Amino acid sequence: MLNFEFKNPTKLIFGTGKIAQLAQEIPADARVLLLYGGGSIKTNGIYDQVKAALASYDIVEFGGIPANPEYEVLLQALSVIKEQSITYLLAVGGGSVIDGTKFLASAAYYTGPEPWDILSQSIRTEHGMPFGTVLTLPATGSEMNSGAVITRAETQEKRSMGGPGLFPAFSILDPQVVRSVPQRQLANGITDAFTHVLEQYMTYPVGARLQDRFAESIMQTLIEIAPVIMQNPADTDAAGDFMYCCTMALNGLIQKGVPTDWAVHAMGHELTALYNIDHARTLAIIAPSHYRYNFRTKREKLTQYGQRVWGLTGPPEEVAIRAIGRTEEFFHSLDIKTKLSQYTENYEGTAERIEERFTERGWLGLGEHKSLTPQDVRTIVEMSY
Amino acid sequence: MLNFEFKNPTKLIFGTGKIAQLAQEIPADARVLLLYGGGSIKTNGIYDQVKAALASYDIVEFGGIPANPEYEVLLQALSVIKEQSITYLLAVGGGSVIDGTKFLASAAYYTGPEPWDILSQSIRTEHGMPFGTVLTLPATGSEMNSGAVITRAETQEKRSMGGPGLFPAFSILDPQVVRSVPQRQLANGITDAFTHVLEQYMTYPVGARLQDRFAESIMQTLIEIAPVIMQNPADTDAAGDFMYCCTMALNGLIQKGVPTDWAVHAMGHELTALYNIDHARTLAIIAPSHYRYNFRTKREKLTQYGQRVWGLTGPPEEVAIRAIGRTEEFFHSLDIKTKLSQYTENYEGTAERIEERFTERGWLGLGEHKSLTPQDVRTIVEMSY
Predict the structure, then answer these.
(1) Which chain B residues touch A13 with a CB distance below 8 Å?
(2) Domain spans of chain B?
(3) Which UniProt keywords apply (chains A, B) (predicted)?
(4) What is the CATH number of domain A183-383?
(5) For residue A249, how many other CB atoms are within 10 A of its CB?
């Protein structure tokens, strides 16, 4: 096992009807900015539950945070925070709203000239404005971690940020919210969480037996509940397991003490920036090619994954190869397509373009060995056409 | 899954050589009370590492905290805290030293007439004196939870306490400490952690698929590393997995959202109080009889455990029965005896005596259904002779 430090102070509040508990979690004298996305919370009843729970609070609202939270939109929210003397943020939404809220929690206390610096200069947030979340869309795990990914349309960039000051004070997970999530988003959520686990698992063995098994546990559970959830998102047990898997997939637990990859995300982010493909789908496009291209360095973990998660038997090398196929089939079972050409007709030249963008940005090497070059990336993206 | 809240703010610092990092974790102006047990840390080098790391601090020492931390001894430490105006506690030891330190963290701020009230009246500690730990003996998980068990020799009692104010600020887990742990304590640690998992798992299914798999992961890992550790505690990988399993077995993670039992502990504590049998060994004595006696209510989980953890196949009922036997064999493989008569010749009458003690104390019901009566307890203890 590698050395590690783990601290995650977020209070997780899980259960049906738990949104009503909001007022116990936010200081009574807080001036709250309620942040949300496209407004679906106003039709599915969550908005009403939140407002009822916070009836005694001084609340300002900011809706319209888009998927892949956009810097320019967030700057508008930042003005509201300053003009209205906001002291507490409440994100009601999925990963995009929560990530956007984390940016605001950081930017609200940032004293530099331009908030984009937090992202472009990788400034770690030690202290941010306190915030909580009500999760409406299980997927990213942002509700229990201290990281965020922000998009800047102007430059077609997605950049990440983080720091110990960006853990939510609390996150409410009510499995009833899952019933109003559209099929497409359910499939995205399962795919996103599954790939998060792969990024922290599909590397090379370091004798971290428990972390490996925890990672496998999350994947096994996602595989088990996926058909249940897709057919009946009102199945409260499966919905709860789904939410909890998404949270545990990226709250730091399974990444501690093991090497992590994240090359699939790095490449996937480029596809979203270029073609606006759903984040989760970009991961499903890249992951299989990435594992095939890096088969030699990932072989042992691919075999372990095939054996333990998919129950495959046979010669190790064969199990490893078949495990990649089973992963693709799993994505297909969710109606997630795994080739770039199934999302855009204009895919030609994408690989070269991404190679160029990575090269321009100053290359540090991708993957668990930091060894993948822009040329490797080009090949992997080409294999994903 | 049942509703739950989960928050664990302890910072875990894992790795070889991490004791040197102590000074980064304790405020520079702290007046530190260094607490330890029988003094083995002075022969195995850990004491020297701690002193070197804290060379610039103002440190007072209190050694001699016994296994099953004793109230009278802790009262002496409490006097030191008050006389010396201590502001920070540092536990260097195993579960007993850490539990004793938690009592002191609570008692230091307690304003009532008699600190034993914290235990006898189940007073929850919302705010305690800050403390950190250097774990020297993996077993109890106390290094990452907010509970403690304290013994009072005078009345032959073991009582528990806890509260959000009793999470360690940090805990340092250096796998190198495992090499100086005696065989007997290694066996105890593995047995203790394994039984902690059983207490939170061997109940009835509630559709908490991920918690079940996490629990099974810990047990599978303990089974895998047990022979390695017993033969060579200097195997750093296995030692690290062992430490991490013990921590994860009782840091709140696997108990959230599921029913828990803890009847084995309740009965085991009595055996320690009466005969001074090692805590872990009392669990190994009670657990098999407890599962046989409560077979009907625990059957489904026993079967799942047999299938997933021990890889047993066959008719469910048979798998469940054999799973109990495999658990006993596992304890035997660690040279842990599983019958009370193997520990004391004076076992006759124990069952009646424990029945009486529970009845006197005011009975609330034991186990996940709160349905076990003192009479049930008597039978289970008799089955354990």
Answers:
(1) 5
(2) 11-176, 183-383
(3) Oxidoreductase
(4) 1.20.1090.10
(5) 31
Could you give the CA distance from residue A99 to residue A106 in angstroms, rounded to a whole number?
11
Is the CB of A221 less than 8 angstroms away from the CB of B241?
no
Q: Which CATH architecture has domain A11-176?
A: 3-Layer(aba) Sandwich (3.40)
Tens-level pLDDT at each residue, chain B (385 residues): 999 999 999 999 999 999 999 999 999 999 999 999 998 999 999 999 999 999 999 999 999 999 889 999 999 999 999 999 999 999 999 999 999 999 999 999 999 999 999 999 999 999 999 999 999 999 999 999 999 999 998 887 888 999 999 999 999 999 999 999 999 999 999 999 999 999 999 999 999 999 999 999 999 999 999 999 999 999 999 999 999 999 999 999 999 999 999 999 999 989 998 999 999 999 999 999 999 999 999 999 999 999 999 999 999 999 999 999 999 999 999 999 999 999 999 999 999 999 999 999 887 799 999 999 999 999 999 999 9
Instruction: Tell me the CA distances in angstroms from A18 to A8, A24, A131, B178, B255, one per residue in order.
Output: 21, 11, 17, 43, 19
Q: How far is B297 from chain A (nearest CA, A)?
A: 21
Same fold, A11-176 and A183-383: no
Chain A's closest residue to B236, CA to CA, is: A1
Q: Do residues B125 and B165 lie in contact, with contact meaning Cβ atoms separated by under 8 Å?
A: yes
Return the residue in B10, B14, B209, B246 with the most chain A beta carbons within 10 A, the one to mutate for interface testing: B209
Q: Nearest by CB to B210, from A18, A248, A257: name it.
A: A248
Distance from CA of B350 to the nearest CA of A (A): 39
- Nearest-Å Rg of the Cα atoms of chain A is 20
